[in-house]
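The records we work with from here on pair a chain with its fold. Here is one such record, which you should read through line by line:
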Amino acid sequence: MNIASVREVVSAEEWQLRVDLAACYRLVALYGWSDLVFTHISARIPGPEHHFLINPYGLMFDEITASSLVKVDQACNKLIASPFPVNPAGFTIHSCIHQVRDDAGCVLHTHSRAGVAVSAQKAGILPISQQSTFVLASLAYHEYEGVALRDDEKPRLQAALGRKNFLMLRNHGLLTIGRTVPDAFLSMYTFENTCRIQIDAQAGGELVYVNPKILEGMAQVMKTVTAGQGANIAWPALLRKLDKLDPSYKD
């Protein structure tokens, strides 16, 4: 695809955000969490205007580039001309979270097989893995109300989420919130692996549960694990991985 670069018409800060978000889409595809064109990752552009970047509807995640991302307002109106459509219905969940969470720099939503499978289990996430301990420290659930198209669902979703950073959408999928794109991606990596491990473990014998006391103070544990750098401890390596495979995400 020949997509005109927008690098010269946006701020340096927005361009860097575009590169990171495009990389995130490519990584979601690479790790097998995408659902054709039917989920979204949104990022808020810094500033008072409440502007966001979202995927051009109809492109596979491994096709998305920094310039093809669509800039929209809170109502999903395009702010920069783009040959691609956007999906207002797909932005419903994202917009309502960005609206009430000033720390939501990035919202990442998936329909992965393992994520949907666990979301359909009554007990939800079980404390049976090290990965699960990080998720359970900041996990919320939202009951399924059908395809997220109605505005009246937004207050209930916002209330269910509260200040948590992991959200399990019952019978639907997974969602993570991060201050940055790397933060949201690392959280989803942990969330997804938690679900995969759970499905695998349930196929075997009797489960061993983590001592509830271990779940306390996980925020500090995560800081230690990431050497105080959060997701930035892994993000440069992930970008190097993408650069080796296909650096076109930066176009």
In short: The CA atoms of residues 92 and 148 lie 7 Å apart. The chain has one domain: 7-244. The chain has a mean pLDDT of 92. The first strand starts at residue 41 and ends at 45.
